Amino acid sequence: MSEEQQTEQGEVVLRLTDVVKTFPGVRALDGVQLEVRAGEVHCLLGQNGAGKSTLIKVLAGVHRPDEGQIEWLGHDFAPANPQAAMKAGIATIYQELDLVEDLSVGENTFLGHEPKVFGFVRRGYMARHTREILGKLGHSEIPSRRLVRSLPAAGKQVVSMARALSHDARLIIMDEPSAVLAHDEVANLFRIIRGLTAQGIAVIYISHRLEEIREIGDRVTVLKDGRTTAANLPARTTPTRDLVSRMTGRTIEYVFPEPAPEVQGAPELLRVEGLTRANEFADISLSVHSGEIVGIAGLVGSGRSELLETIFGARRSEAGTVRMNGKALRPGSVSAAVRAGLGMAPRSARARPCCWASRSTATSRSRRSASTPGSASPTSGARSRRPTASPSGSTCALATCAAPCGPSPAATSRRSSWGAGCSVTPSCCCSTSPPGASTWAPGPSSTR
């Protein structure tokens, strides 16, 4: 019997009928229909703003629907809060994982429902059952007492799944789970998902990557502007043209507009020549003119983010020069880059919660591409707050970071743990070690 035939015979665990959710001035969900069966991977597709996030939050108990009916395991379902949804067997793994990084794997797995005796946490029981759950997920090698902070992105997702299984989840909702994973980590994620569905657990999988839908999905539901435009399509055989048309309302030929003509004679704003950092990138050269976008391509781990951080001064280059408006910037100096009008918006707002503002007013009209392992362009927008000088002489270029930074980036490129020097988050770019430590580095890169 094929996998799709088995899925069709699974019982319906979740059914949404004409679900409506409105916010002031916005009808986020407008009669959504959805049916999920036990042991299947049901893929949810839609453009940004289609209503996927709102639908997830309705199922997770964050929002209450205004109209319509939700049936869970054959009964009407209206969770009052996320705890009620989790207790009922619906677990949600958001794209931004909600783990406590300074707690252990076991403590995160049983967070909020720790096994206790006379008010004392049964840590041995918790560690033993965490190992059992990790074994079911095929990752018994992860120590239950290891801090979550030390795990890679793929390991943190495994811990999120372990937390869901600790609640005896019957349905796991995964929001863009592969967004921060390398290719081999995605393959491992799919292996785990197949193991979950083999146990009869249903999975709602949300992704923009159609190739992933083909590989892991059983059926597909498409949302557009809060409405269900297609339901229960076969994931492996539905033509891409049909999926794109139902997501966008246009045929695939009209999804992408014609590129704007290249601006001729525009002045050069940024020039990078021979930029090099050992074991990260070597001899990178590029230029950015006013009004243009320079695209940079590379695989995860190829050094794209490291190149950007070096151009911006968050890392010190070992060779090469960076010029802004013809003026060479001091290597390893974020404040010099900001004063010259260079800005940086990190890839991950969670990994790097601060957005570096620029004084540049360049606009983005024309497009170019360069096959080098990073990307950079001056950004436009609001003026940045003047850097705050620190006692050690370095500056914090972040508009939202109120505390002084630690020693200069030129002192060392070693990564450091969160200390008392930054008031934002542990991964703020001006993260420092405890007083007396001579280390400085940007927060962890989302591509490493």
TrEMBL record:
Top-level taxon of the source organism:
Bacteria
Q: Which species expresses this protein natively?
A: Phytohabitans houttuyneae
**Extent of Low complexity compositional bias:** 359-382
UniProt keyword annotations, A-Z: ATP-binding, Nucleotide-binding, Repeat, Transport
Signal peptide (from-to): none
Q: What is this protein called?
A: ABC transporter domain-containing protein
User: Segment Disordered: which positions?
Assistant: 359-391, 411-448
**Gene Ontology MF annotations:** ATP binding; ATP hydrolysis activity
User: Which part of the chain is the ABC transporter domain?
Assistant: 14-250
Origin organism lineage: Bacteria, Bacillati, Actinomycetota, Actinomycetes, Micromonosporales
